[in-house]
Amino acid sequence: MRKNKLARMIVTLGVAITMLFAVVAFGGCSPTRHPNSDPAIETQLEIQIRQDWVTRFSRPTAETSILLNDTFVLTYFGTYGDSVVVDISCPITIPNVLGYAIIANIKIYFHNNLIRVWNNRSFFGLEEAYNLGLLSIENLKSIAAI
Model-level pTM? Predict the structure, then answer.
């Protein structure tokens, strides 16, 4: 009787280890593309931007913390040199707000958040990115056309 019980425990342990290996090996523990993200952005890039956003803007208290699964790239405006231009949605976003910014005499419309420029794992506003030389006037015109 003890042999049967020991055999069942060994089989159960083996099944549990196999399932754990399958979850880890097939990405169960890694971040994934958010289902609401703009499909135009490449998955790994989108995940890295979201991770950097959470790292930069999350707060230590439970009431104000932002989690990776709470954020997604609402609109991908393109990659310009080393800069990726996105509108990121997260729990602190005000829904259904349309706004605009005028930079270098170019009017750029956005939804919800201000458009952010991700460069070297840091975030910049459009005007700041333009002033730093991360975006050109041609880039701003392209962003405004989207």
Answer: 0.70
DSSP 97-135: -EEEEEETTEEEEEESS--EEEETTEEEEHHHHHHTTSS
pLDDT (tens, 9 = 90+) of the chain, 146 residues, equals: 555 665 565 545 454 444 433 333 333 345 676 677 778 888 899 989 988 988 887 766 655 566 777 788 888 999 999 999 998 877 665 556 677 889 999 998 877 667 899 999 999 999 999 999 999 999 999 999 98
Burial class (CB in 10 A: 0-12, 13-18, 19+), 33: middle
Check: CB of residue 86 under 8 Å from CB of residue 118.
Answer: yes
For the chain, domain boundaries: 1-30, 43-144
